[in-house]
Structure formats: structure tokens, C-alpha cells
Amino acid sequence: MTTFDKILPAAAEVLTAEADLVAQLDWLVINRDLNGRVRFIVPESIEANDALRAKIEALYQALTERIAAHAYPVATGILFEANVDDACAGGARFPLEAFDKVWIADRLATEGNWAQIAPETQGAPRVVFFSIKGGVGRSTALAACAWKLAQLGKRVLVLDLDLESPGLSSSLLPPERQPLYGITDWLVEDLIDQGDALLEAMIATSDLSRDGQIYAVPAHGADPGEYIAKLGRVWMPKVHSDGRRESWSMRLQRLLQRLEARIQPDIVLIDSRAGIDEVASSCVTDLGANLILLFALDGSQTWNGYEILFKHWLRSSVATQIRERLQTVAALVPELDPTAYLADLREHAYDLFLETLYDEVSATDDEGWSFDLASEIAPHQPWSVRWHRGFAALRTLHGRLAQIDDEEVRHVFGDLIGRTLRSLGWAEGYPKVIDGGTF
């Protein structure tokens, strides 16, 4: 039996065997539909060329014999389009490895395909807090970073995009300061052209600020209302009056641009949904993040999950577009023997990056994007967040931040905050920020 995972290797072997024929084509698209079945899409000029069309049919027949149920009969398995852009429209598009003219068009049930990487934003830096698994203290660390940045005089915009597990705003805002609306409300109302009317009523300022300000935009308002019903609609694309289709992630980008224009922040902190799903994809790949913090516990679930994601970027030929924005964060570093724990986590992170995202370099040629195990500037070198009993419960975080001082935050989050500041080029303005995160 041929399973889904064997489709592309089989296609590569079949096309390699007929490399001369493939070289004659301007382009070839291997279209995988929602059911995982494959068709060829070729230039429409081939339709009237009996000899060349017969060769394409024979090529497709050879593929059908390899992938069986994942193919259509030859009579319906070949489509014709004017150009490659039309052939790939509406699908996730990436080249078939080792072929210059062959593209894969994946038709997915969701739009979160992880293979469309938006360029880095040129305005206020956007920092995404992401994790493969939940329960790693990601939201707590974001709240602490926002708190410290505000103490340093920054205008900090915080977005709770963990829509299916909301709660970040409660760590930054007491109940009486919760705004009337949230991101889910905007995404639903935007479908009928009244999202922007909610904008002012979905922003709240935190009472934790001192010299700067924290502007929190929650997943939902003070009264969630029919949150589940709304959540089932936020992923909807918007079809404009002129027929233009705007995906939900594009709408999310537009919301963020509106908020940035309104608030004029110095930095944007985005709490992403954990896991490899629709929301996380938009946060990590679609919003132009400048820095993506990959929270990790040292365990097989963490590394297996990140390996799946990294290898997808490799197969989709987009790894080079995102790898320099990634940074490993050691979450919940235990109190018992933290040095040994961090050493093990660093080694496992290094092995993952070396196998997937780092370039292969020889002993005589150090060109390429790669780092030694001990490199302090490498993305595998973990920025640490210590486990602390007082920060273990997110529900009490607002009270904790209202009562504690820099020393307590430094002890738990200092390495993460200090290194984040340095990565953004802000440490120079704060002479108390030194290596190791002390400030």
C-alpha cells in the first residue's frame, strides 16, 4: 500500500526517470487535493500537441502505478492551465526537491500551511512567543517581559492570540480594566465591515506600568459572550465586494497594522497558540515576526514536534527565510541542578538545528549559516526561564507583578529579558543590562 508520505518520493523517482521529457516543459505542477489524490497540471499549449500530450499521459500513468489510490485515472488526472500561478492558485506552493520546473500545489483544509513566510516587519519589532506543547510558562514569560519593558520606558503592545486557550490579559489586567471587546470580536465583526468600530474598545492599559505603558489586546472582552460560536468563525476568509478574497491571517495582519497605527508601540509581543495549528501558523509565519521564541522542555515531545516543523520548512524550501529569526528558550528550568539541565537541553537543540536548519560546512570552508555547540549567539543556545513557585500559577501573576521588584523578576526571567533586549539592540541604552540577563 502506498501512503500519503510516499507520494512525493515516488513522484521524484518517476520524473527523474524521464528527466529529458520534464526538461522540455516550461513547468509542471503536481496538485494534491483535499483527499490527498494527485493530478498533473501542465501548460495549456500541451493540450493541442498530440505527441507531447501522449508522453505526459504516459508519465502520469507511470506515477499512478506507483501511488495507486492516491491517483486518478489518466483520463481525468491531467489538467491544463495558462500559467503556473493560475495552476497553484489557492494552494500551498513549493518546489519539488531537485527539480527547477516542478511545483507542488497542496490543497489544505486549513490555511495554516507554515510554508508561506512573510518578510520581517520594518516597524516596531514583533516578538512571537511560541511552543510546541502547552503548559511551559510561555504566557507568564511574555507578561513578565512586557512588565520589564514598560519599566524601562517602552510602549508595549501585547496581543493574546492563544484564542483557543485565552488568559494572558488576566495576568496584565485586573478584572475592572478588562476591555469590552477582544480579537475574536474584531475578526467576526470584520466579516461584515464593522470590525474597526470596535478598535478603541478592545485596547486596555495595564496598571503595572511605570515609565512606559502596556497596551493589552485580549482574545475576548470582559464578557466573552458566545465565545465558542465566535471562535468557529474567526478563521473565515473575507470576500470583498470586488470579489477579492482575504484569508483570515491577512485579516489578522490588517488588525495588527491598525493597532500599531493607533498605539505607536516600541515593541509588539504576541502570545501564540501552542502546537502546529492554524493560529500558531499565522503568528509564526504570517505576521512578519522579527524574533520567534521557541519555548522548550527537554523531552522527546518537544524535539519531535520541532523536528516535524523544521523539516516541513526544509521540504517547502523556506527554511532560509525564517531560520535566522528563531531562538530556543529553556522553559521552567528546574531548581535542582539547572546547569546540567541546560547543558542537556542545549545539546539536544544543537542536534536538531544541525540536522535540519544549519548549513553543512567543511573544516576548510566556514561559509554558510552554522554554529558551534558552545556559540553564545546561536539559536540553539537556550535563553533560560527558571521555574519559580511564585510564578507557577498564571491566575495570580497580575498580583505578583504588582508587588515584586526587579530582583525577583531578574532571578526568574532575567536571562530571557536581557538577551531579548540585546537581540533588539536596546541593551546599550540600559547600562545595567549585562550578559546573563542581569539588569
CATH structural class of the largest domain? Alpha Beta
The average pLDDT score comes to 89
Order of helices and strands: HHEEHEHEEEHEHHEEHEEHEHEHHEHEHH
CATH superfamily of the largest domain: P-loop containing nucleotide triphosphate hydrolases
Q: What's the architecture of the largest domain, going by CATH?
A: 3-Layer(aba) Sandwich
Count of all domains: 2
State the end-to-end distance: 60 Å
Query: How would you sum up the major sheet?
Result: 8 strands, mixed
Helix content: 25-40%
Secondary structural class? alpha/beta
CATH fold field value of the largest domain? Rossmann fold
Q: What strand line-up does the widest sheet have?
A: 8-9-7-12-6-13-14-15
Separate helix tally: 15
Your description of this structure?
This protein has 439 residues and is of the alpha/beta class. The chain has 2 domains: 4-106, no CATH class; 126-437, P-loop containing nucleotide triphosphate hydrolases (Rossmann fold, 3-Layer(aba) Sandwich), CATH 3.40.50. The protein is 36% helix and 16% strand. The chain is built from 15 helices and 15 strands. The protein has helices spanning 7-17, 19-24, 50-67, 84-88, 138-151, 168-172, 183-190, 227-231, 248-263, 278-286, 300-315, 319-322, 338-355, 397-403, 406-423, and strands at 28-32, 38-43, 78-81, 92-95, 102-106, 126-131, 155-161, 204-205, 213-217, 238-239, 245-246, 267-272, 291-296, 326-333, 383-386. The strands form 3 sheets. The chain has an 8-stranded mixed β-sheet with strand order 8-9-7-12-6-13-14-15, with helices on both faces. Strands 3-2-1-5-4 form a 5-stranded mixed β-sheet. Strand 4 (92-95) and strand 5 (102-106) form a beta hairpin. Helix 1 (7-17) packs across helix 3 (50-67), helix 5 packs across helix 15 (406-423) and helix 9 crosses helix 10 (278-286). It is globular. Residues 431-439 have low confidence and may be disordered.
